[in-house]
Design goal:
Two copies of one chain form a homodimer. By secondary structure, the first copy, chain A, is α/β, with parallel strands linked by helices. Chain A has eleven helices and twelve strands. In chain A, the strands form three sheets. Chain A has a five-stranded mixed sheet, with helices on both faces. Chain A has a five-stranded mixed sheet with strand order 10-9-8-11-12, with helices on both faces. In chain A, strands 5-6 form a two-stranded antiparallel ribbon. In chain A, helix 3 packs across helix 11 and helix 6 crosses helix 8. The longest helix of chain A is centred in the C-terminal third of the chain and has 18 residues. The first copy, chain A, is globular. At the A-B interface, helix 6 of A face helix 6 of B.
């Protein structure tokens, strides 16, 4: 691995950015963390870091979204319609690609995490997987044949509308959809329903039943895309509440009802797993994006 | 187009097979229809047709499913767990590929229809689309960057569980999931709920409201995969009831609630459309599969 090319990776998160110079998890040569403030300020700070690191062969950017990944679109490389103040319609990837003139790949943070886990983490060796983050929002990154599944745009499957648990008619917390999966099972949704943040809610609180049911429905839908051989679940709600894993696996198995009788899915304990890369998943995912940019140019 | 290589295409359907020798919709040199009976008999009949057509450069097979498309799996090329008598665990693609020794691609009938519509039909020129068939079952074919979206297996998104229409608690007709989309909106589901086949049910029957709602939810989920620039809807229930199109478009728009503010989706009249290839969509899709087999070998 020592002769793998050096890649610059940028994880652009809602509260902070991590910028690394690396060729893999055991070869992280430089690492910087920056607060995410206003685009002009944050991008200038990222550039100040990268300017000092010249010599990288490619650049990968894993960003919070929604973003435009359609290379035919006029707004390719932009963060598009985010409610985060100042960031809507912000050019990210075009600006950085032009400045450094190296092959550049731009995708969502959750696709980055999926690619990182597939290369070096909880799905190592698998070409087809999903990464689901359950935190402030619910994001889904789908990878098929080692590449992100996308087209017009990237996955937003966290906003599908699940079948409801019998007797539950809470209106949900999503401003667009009410009781979509994100509106039922994200951290803010849990807080809106219970008055208590997910990480502080007792494992025996009855609201978890609704959260687990909604997430089981999401995994059911992700499974039925036909893509994943494994689903990695991270994000603040999952990390703080490991008891959720067996409950979500059970909900998924119940929901599928024996459909998709393929061993990878049927063995639900190895099908739905926790991430392995910890706080470096995002920036390492950006390194994989940079490596993919090298391969396609 | 006259110098495009000749491809043999097989559409293997539940009641009949169509076998063609063609390079495109305006260059169909041979065409044969055969009843689908027992695998040994039907495959022998297909081979008798193809044997007389030697000279094709590749073979495409678009089959009813579920099928194994995982080239790493021991059962690659098989129809797997179908309830159709005699067809479970039947080798299709390995047998035909070995006999003709040409590049061979094998996928679902609905992926075939999607590829055909993308090349020559209602989504011509688009690299990313979905084809949804609403008939005896509900099938989804997803194409991204001109290739089928798959991984472990093929899409079975017709079996996702939708949010229910308020007040509707019918148990649904799917033997695996009850009230999944197929269990609520397929032809047999409509017949089970109303006692009347879909094609004979009056457009003002109240049961259509539930069918439209379920299909709107399916299109919502397909849209949120991020893949399609257009969704083509075919199958017996759609073909016989063109009034469904405006109602499904309306349901989709309502369900998305302004999410995915991209023109391709926002213009729902051109986003959700009828097929254009008619009864040749399946076999022409098989021709595209054969062309893709040529490209990858």
């Amino acid at each position: 691995m020592s002769d793998a090319p050096l890649i610059a990776g940028v994880e652009l998160g809602g509260t902070k950015c991590v910028v690394i110079l690396a060729s893999g998890p055991d070869a992280i040569h430089e690492r910087a963390e920056l607060p995410t403030t206003h685009p002009a300020e944050t991008l200038a700070a990222i550039e100040a870091v990268l300017d000092a690191w010249r010599g990288f062969a490619a650049l990968g950017i894993a960003s919070f979204g929604p973003i435009s990944i359609d290379r035919h679109a006029g707004d390719y490389g932009y963060i598009t319609s985010t409610p985060k103040p100042g960031w809507a319609n912000s050019d990210i990837a075009r600006r950085l690609a032009a400045r450094y003139d190296v092959p550049t790949e731009f995708h969502t943070d959750v696709v980055g995490a999926a690619l990182g886990e597939a290369r070096w983490g909880a799905a190592a060796g698998l070409t087809d997987l999903a990464y689901v983050t359950v935190g402030t929002g619910i994001g889904v990154g789908l990878i098929a044949h080692d590449r992100p599944v996308d087209g017009l745009t990237h996955s937003e499957m966290g906003h599908i509308r699940p079948q409801r648990l019998g007797g539950d008619d809470w209106s949900g917390a999503c401003p667009f959809h009410g009781a979509c999966v994100e509106g039922l099972a994200s951290g803010p949704a849990i807080a809106a329903r219970t008055g208590v943040k997910g990480q502080d809610l007792s494992p025996d609180h009855e609201a978890w039943e609704n959260v687990v049911h909604a997430l089981g429905q999401l995994l059911h839908a992700i499974t039925l895309t036909g893509v994943p051989r494994r689903i990695v679940m991270g994000g603040g709600v999952m990390v703080g509440n490991p008891f959720l894993f067996p409950r979500i696996r059970h909900a998924l198995r119940q929901s599928l009802g024996g459909y998709i009788a393929i061993p990878e899915v049927a063995d639900v304990d190895t099908y739905v797993v926790a991430p392995a890369l910890g706080h470096n998943a995002g920036p390492l995912g950006a390194i994989v994006l940079g490596q993919q940019a090298l391969l396609t140019t």
